[in-house]
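Page 42, continued from yesterday. The earlier attempt failed because a stray header line got pasted into the input along with the sequence. Redoing it now with the clean sequence only.
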Amino acid sequence: MVLMPRWDQEDAVFDSSSEGVAAALGIRKEGTMKRSRQEIFSQILDICMNGANKTRIVYLANLNFRTVNPYLDILIKNQHLIEIGKGEQILYQTTKKGTDLLESINKVNSTLFPK
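This time it went through. Structure tokens are written below.
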């Protein structure tokens, strides 16, 4: 038999401050919000404008080597990035199609979030 804790209304504590409400709704504080996939794609495309190796992408996009691979694979598959070189000397370069996508993302972001 598993005993479950009893919760009475009088035991309930709710933080009605803005931080408490945000936490209850699953909203993070500004600056700690999880990035969307689109933001990560945008960062990678921007980093690769002049060519970048995987290490540079990982550090500048604040990713790790395990998480960067699916993003690179999708961007290459959709012809937004190309691989230049072979072996350990691979550079990733943003294509014209990738530049167009990056401009579109930036345009949408500037419309939604004007400075």
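Notes: The beta strands are 81-84, 91-94.
Reminder to self: strip header lines before submitting.
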